[in-house]
Amino acid sequence: MNSENDLQLHPLTDPGKAQLRWEVTMVGCLYAGYAGLTLCRTAVPIAAPAMIADPTLGLDGESFGALLGWGAGGALAGKLLCGIAADHFGCRRLFLFAITLQMEFLSFLPL
């Protein structure tokens, strides 16, 4: 029979310091992710006046609004499609596929 010392406990079920360290790490990652999301969501509205005023971009208020609308529509479609794909293929596989696809796409952009 296995004693309790022989069993390796999962970080989520370990009642000791490992569980506390796991929880603190998860909370820290959640806050860091939320801070990144907030930074990305506020970057476009902050840059909007300068983007509209830049004559090389050729944006006026109407075309910038259309650009934001198409971006929101694309985000909605992506969330719906990725939700279905995550249910079908699994979250981990879909996340790894998305990261790989993003790396491939960004590797072709000029610096």
Structure report:
The chain is mainly α and 111 residues long. The chain has two domains: 1-57; 60-111. The chain is built from three helices and no strands. It has helices at 17-53, 61-89, 91-107. Helix 2 crosses helix 3. The longest helix is centred in the first third of the chain and has 37 residues, at 17-53. The radius of gyration is 22 Å and the shape is elongated.
- Name the poorly predicted regions: none
Return the structural class: mainly alpha
In angstroms, what is the radius of gyration?
22 Å
Beta fraction: under 5%
List the secondary-structure elements in sequence, H or E. Answer: HHH
Query: How would a crystallographer describe the biggest sheet?
Result: none
Mean pLDDT: 84
- Distance between the first and last residues' Cα: 61 Å
The total tally of domains equals: 2
Outline type: elongated
Secondary structure: helix percent: over 70%
Count of helical segments?
Answer: 3
Number of strands: 0
